[in-house]
Amino acid sequence: MNLRQWLLLTGGITAWFLGGLAVLHAQTGPSPDTDLTIIERVLVKVNGQIITQTDLETRQINEIRSRGVPPRNNVELANLVREITPAVIANAVDELLLVQRGRDLGYQLSDEQFDEIVNNLKTENQFESDEQFEEALQESEGLTMADLRRVMERQMLVGQIQQVEILSRVSITDVEARDYYDTHIEEFTEPATATLREILIAVPDDVDGINAGAAEEGRVVAQTVAARLRGGEDFATVAEEVSESPSRSNGGLIGPLLLVDYSETIQQLITSLSVGEVADPVRTPQGFQVVMLEARTDDVARPFDEVRDQISSNVFNDRRLEEYTQYLDSLREEAIIEWKNEELRQLYEVYRAENVNSPPGGPQQN
Questions:
Q1: Which of 81, 107, 264, 286 is most buried as measured by Cβ atoms within 10 A of its Cβ?
Q2: Residue burial 61-90, b: 16+ Cβ < 10 Å; e: rest
Q3: Is the pLDDT confidence value at 333 over 90?
């Protein structure tokens, strides 16, 4: 989506969403710490810097927009807001911690960098003048150029921290890649498969206890069929003639399927047969089954050189997420977080406890 489309979409959904939030706030009543003389409501302070009600609502809007389908009414909106708010507020705190860390390390968005970003946006989205660009920004989103710069700088600071403080710590050597390959060989192994042909002589399972003669008759028919096949008759022709399985329409062909997808009884048959060999009839719940092994492939491990890049990517991503989690954990431990809203504090703490070993959801921009 280009900037022009983004601005048009944002304007519509923001107005509707904020209207819905106003209804929700009216239903739930003001917070105990609400002061009618204060325009902006502070929800939490992180090392002295604030996250406001407006910040939270903007992030909620962005999260709902990212899902593609907006709620149809205020009931759906209320349910969705309850669902997303714990992660949204947790990510807001995490992002602020990363931004603060970036500023502590001296990172900043220079005038030249900001001008380059704006010029690229204007060119890509066919704004002919600064005035046209600023007007679209203001009318559709209520953002000034200063607001846009603040958003861009936050994105840049988070990106710099991730690149310098986190990604620089992550690497994988050839020895580590080989060790991962050896200990996770199943991830790079194509599993065994088998293709069969079958003929079913149907005998209901409960017949054995009621009419043993019918079961014996089915057994004799199946043995006769096996003998015909071993005598050289074409399996597909015989299957179309006598089989009572749906597979008769394609000559009794089954598969190829993964070996583990067959029943244990059939798996045992497969491992004992050579390709083209017909097995003795076996009793199944459906009747007596005559099976021939049409084709088989064994487990095949892909060569290390073929999967080296995949291993590097997998291990790198795992380590990156681990480093990212540990880095944020350390920032949280050092931070002074002062909650001004008890409900949000509880949502935050429950979310953090439930996701203590999970990678963070990633910063969300406002």
A1: 81
A2: bbbbbeeeebbeeeeebbebbeebbbbbbb
A3: yes
